[in-house]
Amino acid sequence: MKRLRIGLDLDNVLIDFYSHICDYYNARHGTSWKYSDLKSWYLEHTWGCSNQYVVDILDDFYHSDEHKLVTPIVGSTKAIEELSPSHDLFIITSKPDYLKKQTEEWLLNQYGDVFKSVHMINQYHGEGPRRTKSGVCEELCVDIFVDDHIGNTVEVADTGVKALLFDAPWNRVEIPQHVERAHSWEDVVLKINLFAESA
Ligand SMILES: [Mg+2]
Predict the structure, then answer these.
(1) Ion ligand 1 neighbours, Cβ < 5 Å
(2) Dist CA 101 CA 107 (whole Å)
(3) pTM of the predicted structure, to 2 decimals
(4) Extended strands (E) in the chain
(5) Per CATH, is 5-16+72-198 categorized as 3.40.50.1000?
(6) Which member of 25, 35, 171, 174 has the lowest number of beta carbons within 10 Å of its beta carbon?
(7) What span, in angstroms and rounded, lies between the C-alpha atoms of 159 and 165?
(8) Quick check: 117 and 89 in contact, CB under 8 A?
């Protein structure tokens, strides 16, 4: 079995991020949104607010104590434990540079010292240079990439890298043939191991 270089998205793949951001939004607005209500990755489509409001509330959330207490996606702890001895794992997140230290501490606390490196691409917030996920995958020579955002998986798959779409309520639409849906972390492990055997 080939030792693979695996690129992993952070929010909604490792962190149960949209559950927590719904709680944060609900506390502010007296609403009761939950993970399963989110039929679009773009929170403004569900909440009926502006994109700028989403950008602002995410920034407030990142600076809050609640953000330090986010919990992992179901199944991810066991899956990372299974994958890390046989493969090299990298985190590739749209989050801003200013969250790097907090992110590394969270990953260490939840999964142990198993990730080779953490890459913040400053997609929506922060002052650091903006990069693309496909660009980082290329720099790291990633063999397989996992993300819940269809656009990110297509962008990476277009460069010839195997891409898995981590199933979520907001991505349950038809996807291009060169992207493969993974229905859970158990399914991610299965698909990664199959890919490693065929590589
Ligand atoms: Mg994500």
Answers:
(1) 9, 11-12, 148
(2) 10
(3) 0.96
(4) 5-8, 88-93, 115-120, 144-147, 162-166, 179-182
(5) yes
(6) 174
(7) 16
(8) no
Residue span(s) of the chain under CATH 3.40.50.1000 come to: 5-16+72-198
User: 121 CA distance to ligand 1 centroid (A)?
Assistant: 12
Question: What stretches in the chain show pLDDT beneath 70?
Answer: 125-126
Look at the block and give the residue holding tokens 């607010």.
49
Q: How far is the CA of 73 from the centre of ligand 1 (A)?
A: 11
| pLDDT in the model for residue 122 | 82
Q: With beta carbons less than 8 A apart as the criterion, state whether 58 and 64 touch.
A: no
Residue pair 88/6 in contact (Cβ under 8 Å)? The answer is: yes
Count CB neighbours of 89 within 10 A: 18
> What's the rounded Cα separation, in Å, for the pair 126 and 59?
9
Amino acid at 150: I
The pLDDT score that the predictor gives to residue 23 is 97
Q: What is the pLDDT of residue 24?
A: 98
